[in-house]
Amino acid sequence: MQLKAIKNNNEYEDALERAYDLMQLDLVPESKESDELEVLSILIKEYEKEHFPINLPL
Questions:
Q1: Does 27 fall in a domain?
Q2: Number of domains composing the chain
Q3: Measured between alpha carbons, how far is 16 from 53 in angstroms, rounded to an integer?
Q4: What's the rounded Cα separation, in Å, for the pair 20 and 37?
Q5: Which tens digits make up the pLDDT trace of 8-57?
Q6: Does any domain span residue 3?
Q7: Residue 52 burial by Cβ neighbours in a 10 Å radius (0-12, 13-18, 19+)
Q8: How many of the other CB atoms lie within 10 Å of CB of 14?
Q9: d(Cα 24, Cα 16) in Å, to the nearest integer?
Q10: Within a 10 A sphere around the Cβ of 20, how many other Cβ atoms?
């Protein structure tokens, strides 16, 4: 998967699927795959923050 900004729900779903697949591996720290998972996590978090905000409790 090419790492780039997530711009729509299809890209979001693809990123979630790839992150899940990576989490199923026995990743070695500082490996290409662990770095990919870290970047994907950041991209997913930012997309969710913008498109699925969680309101603060009252």
A1: yes
A2: 1
A3: 17
A4: 9
A5: 999 999 999 999 999 999 999 999 999 999 999 999 999 999 999 998 89
A6: no
A7: exposed
A8: 14
A9: 13
A10: 11
Domain membership of residue 14 as a residue range? 9-51
**CB neighbourhood size of 15 (10 A):** 20
Question: For residues 21, 25, 28 and 32, what is the CA-based torsion angle, rounded to 10 degrees?
Answer: -30
Please report whether residue 57 resides in a domain.
Answer: no
In a domain, 20, yes or no: yes
Percentages helix, strand, coil for the chain (3-state, rounded to 5) are 60, 0, 40
Report pTM: 0.88
Q: How many whole angstroms from its chain centre is CA 5? A: 10
